[in-house]
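S1.2 Input.
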Amino acid sequence: MKKTQRLTALLLALICCLPLAVACGKKGGISVDKDKAMEQLQLSDAKTQESKKEATESKKLATINGTKEKIEETKPKETEPPETKGPVEEVPITDYTPYAAPPKTPEVYDAAADNRELKVHGASSSDGDWCVVYGECAVGATVSVTNEEGTYSVVSEGGCFALRFLSPDLTAILDVSQSYEGKQIGDTLHWEGEIVLPDYGQDWGVWIGGENQGFYHKMIPDFTHTNLMSDEVVKSLTERYADRVEKLKTVGDGCEMIFVMVPASMTVLTELVPEEVAKPVAGDSRFDQLKKALTEAGAKVIDMRETFNERKNDSLPLYFNYDSHWTDYGSYLAYVDLFDYISDRYPAAAPKTFDEFEWNWAYYTRGDMPWYFDIDQGGKVYEYTITRTGKFDHPAVRAITRYPDKNWSLAYPMYSSEIQNGGTYNTRREDLPDTMVMRNSYGAYMYELIVDKSDKAFMMPTFSYAFNFAQIKKNEPDYLIYILSEWDFGQIIDN
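S1.3 Output.
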């Protein structure tokens, strides 16, 4: 019991005893002054109330101080805000030398070593009154074809040629010769055969341009800018992808949308396009429109036109001559540009250099263009070209086989069931990003490259461009990557 409480109780007891004390006081008892006792009691009560007030104020102040101290103890220290998945400072490659093949040099004919026979595989209608003839010859040779309309020549590549010649009546009565540095090699070959009339429609019709290069008819509208999007379509496209970009920010700790936009061979190799087929047009193309719309929507666009134009005279080709796809070198350059950008946030994702791969030249068959010419339905037309083999140290990457039989095909085995249907690959390297890849058949050529630079890679099936947000959210990638060739832009515009 506190001191003030004890004093009050004592005084109350004394007051209660006052009558008894007065009665007994005359005879030697205790004598008490009642008025003085009441005064003492009132004084004591006032002190008690004051003490209670002080105690209450003290308790209140202590509570306030205690709460403040608790808040100060639990309040986090001020630190720099964590890095988000927003834009980072882009540091472009200033010296492309470590990633580039050496410059192209002319092939040399060696009479002592080259015993390749001059032969013709077949001829087919190409465009209008023009036809194409496929064949083989000596390495380094220039092949000339003569008919009633004139003489047409092309420098072969690796002893293979595809030559465009005029034949209005669709007859193939040809004198074929080969030469090197102006001197004829061997005898002239007289060849008569059928001019095939393929019928695969506008999308899959093929024609041959300069330097043995094949092109698709369906790319002419992009080349001549006759398929531009209307303002309404551009606006709708921009709004649709801006909404998707915002949704991706809620995935995990943020997911960025990247488009790798791959130009068609016709867009890059404009000098090989004959004037009879099409002429380049000034002004914006559909490629430019799409790039601008996606950029304004907030997506990152990697436009491969500049890199390809700078590298099209390298010793390794960007595109096949006899197939509609890019080569392993073209896709490697796209990988360099893609992961150079990603490495600004994930340094471990920096692309491998050119010398970290083996580049093998050999003869490969079954390119899709001779097939669409109806000349090669059995793999008889070969092209001399390259394949890429990486020096990968991770078993998940080494297990990816894009060329089950390296002498069999330029492209089609690469979307075998594993690659065509997609899959999930985990390298368990947390210093690399998680990627989700939307792609067409062009994406097959980057398959193992992307897996190698990803912690987890979700490779969607070929030709799968549908924006399935629930699936994306479930996988929580750091990057949603679209590998988009120019002849497939409609998949993005309409999807």
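S1.4 Remarks. The CA atoms of residues 323 and 367 lie 5 Å apart.
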